Amino acid sequence: MTFGENLRAARERAQLSQGQLAERLKFKRTTPLSIWEHGHKFPGPKTMIKLATAIGCTTADLLHGVETPYDRLRGHASATNGETLTADERQLLKFYRGLSPALQRRHVALMAVTQSALAALPPLSTGRTKDLPPPPAPAPVGRAAARRPAR
Question: Which CATH class is domain 3-74?
Fold first, then answer.
């Protein structure tokens, strides 16, 4: 999940609107909250603590599964070496992390076997229709089928 997704989920669990949270934080507008929830910016550490306090959660809740800019500075970038994960990749990682260690090992072994089997197959088509053979001619129907002599 992203910080924005965590912030929004925590705010909604606390049954707070952006306006109500802005009031608790003594913000004049909801703009910073909207910017953070949409992932356009990231609040600083002091503001993060204020957010968690105002919502009634921990900073760990807001940062769960989030790689902050500070992690990269410390050399603790995620397993992706600083690459951005797609939504599907984040979902797979979340699923994997929710498994017991024994199930994690089984899934890794299964993926290795699957990868070996797929490597032995011929490459997939590019998906372009010109790569496909022409479709078979349709079978005659009705009177045309009756007029054709059997071969």
Answer: mainly alpha
Tokens of 4: 């924005």
Q: How many CA atoms within 13 Å lie on the side-chain side of 116?
A: 5
**Predicted confidence (pLDDT) per residue in 115-149, tens digit:** 888 888 877 665 555 655 666 777 666 665 556 56
Residue 102 dihedral angles phi and psi, to the nearest 5°: -65, -45
| Both structure tokens of 69 | 């800019």
Mean pLDDT computed over 57-63: 89
The three-state DSSP-derived secondary structure of 86-119 is: CHHHHHHHHHHHCCCHHHHHHHHHHHHHHHHHHH
Give the integer Cα–Cα distance in Å for 146 and 148.
6
The residues spanned by each domain of the chain are 3-74, 87-119
Which residues are within 8 A (CB) of 62 and not within 5 positions of it... i.e. 6 or more apart?
Answer: 3, 6, 7, 10, 48, 51, 52, 55
How many other CB atoms are there within 10 angstroms of residue 130's CB atom? 5
Write out the two tokens for 37: 């929830």
Q: Which helix (H) or strand (E) holds 54?
A: helix 45-55
Is residue 86 very low, low, confident or very high in pLDDT (cuts 50, 70, 90)?
confident
